Amino acid sequence: MLKSMTAFSRVEAQCDTSEIVWEIRSINHRYLETSFRLPEDLRSLEFDLRKIAQQNVSRGKLDCIFRLRSNAQEATNLALNQPLLDALVQQAETLSVRLTKSTPPTALDLLNWPGVVEQKSLDHVQLAVHSKALFKSCLQELVEHRQVEGGRMADLIAQRGQQMRELVQQVRQRRPQVLTAIREKIKKRIADFDVDMDQNRLEQELVFLMQKLDVAEELDRLDSHLTELEDILQQNEPVGRRLDFLMQEFNREANTLGSKSADIVTTQAAVDMKVAIEQMREQIQNIE
């Protein structure tokens, strides 16, 4: 099944008193390129995350963004540094004896003292485990989105392939009529010159010329390429580069068909083939 290289996925989960969020954006690229936006505390995970990406995606440019968001529950996760608070109270009482005109500190003043209120720090080990697991889920969602889009692209490519097969069949059916017309046209021109010619030599030259103008080999190769295209669309592996090379072969045969054409219908068929090939190529540029 084909996979598109363009997709987006987003997942989020709860970790202690915070919410972790992963976002992955994927666009087409010649190779696999991954970039990560991580907080400093999770920089050590980048190697493992990059390896996970390589195991699931073969081509595309991935922009992986990690966000850690505090929630309302975190505000209640506070603790007092009791020894420091006791020391501050004791010192304030001592000063109040000496400074009789001073105003004693309020409870809010004491809470604002650096270090009195402590916030429970995140468990970075647990955060790393959750982050890696959530990245796998986000990556899996991305792959699923790429598959869905790839399926739509495969349908479009298959339709263009069927159009080309019909054009090939049209040219093939018309081929005997075209060869006969070429033969009669050449004979008529020779007759117009009103000269005596060796009939055997004339037949040899006609055969040689008709072989040069015959498109049977091009049609056979196009049929073979179309069969290969159908086989590739059924494969469950990255085939973007292979399809790109196949489009080059299609284009080569269509160009040759057009250059050898001695018939307006065949010429138009060659033009229609090149349009279909270009439409397929546009889609293939975005296939993994």
Strand segment count = 6
**Class by SSE composition:** alpha+beta
Rg, Cα atoms, Å: 37 Å
Largest sheet: 4 strands, mixed
Strand residue content: 5-15%
Distance between the termini: 10 Å
| Uncertain stretches | none
- What count of helical segments does DSSP give? 8
How does the overall form come out from the CA principal axes? rod-shaped
Q: What is the overall pLDDT average? A: 84
- The percent range for helix content is 55-70%
Order of helices and strands: EEEHEEHHEHHHHH
Overall number of domains: 3
Report strand order across the widest sheet. Answer: 1-2-4-3
Condensed summary:
The chain has 288 residues and is α+β, with helices and mostly antiparallel strands. Helices cover 62% and strands 15% of the residues. Helix 4 runs antiparallel to helix 8.
Describe the structure.
The protein is built from eight helices and six strands; from the N terminus they run E-E-E-H-E-E-H-H-E-H-H-H-H-H. Strand 1 and strand 2 form a beta hairpin. It is α+β, with helices and mostly antiparallel strands and 288 residues long. The chain folds into three domains: 7-73 and 124-147, Ribosomal Protein S5, domain 2 (2-Layer Sandwich), CATH 3.30.230; 78-119; 149-284, no CATH class. The mean pLDDT is 84.
